[in-house]
Specification:
This protein has 4 helices and no strands. The protein is an all-alpha fold.
């Protein structure tokens, strides 16, 4: 999981290669955090620290924060957002 996603691939291609848990994370960030990876990461950190948080994400991922970083980095390098994809493509 430590490698970064290939920015040469489109968001749709990346999405097709992800397992259901990672796709659920993308949907959660889009719907619960208005597409903000930073807000999602902060919420996860707050929950882990025992501080008040907004949403408890239980997606079955090994490390949600690593996935948040990995997906956000892809969007930043690619200059495109998964949020631009139709919601039905994310499921």
């Amino acid at each position: 999981m430590s490698h970064q996603l290939d920015p040469a691939l489109s968001p749709a291609q990346i999405l097709a290669s992800l397992d259901a848990s990672a796709r659920r994370l993308i949907v959660a960030v889009r719907t619960l955090y208005a597409g903000s990876w930073d807000d999602c990461a902060e919420d996860i950190r707050r929950r882990r620290a025992g501080r008040p948080y907004l949403f408890r994400l239980d997606l079955g991922l090994d490390d949600e924060l690593q996935w948040v970083h990995r997906l956000a980095l892809y969007e930043s390098v690619r200059g495109e957002s998964f949020a631009a994809l139709p919601l039905e493509n994310l499921r």
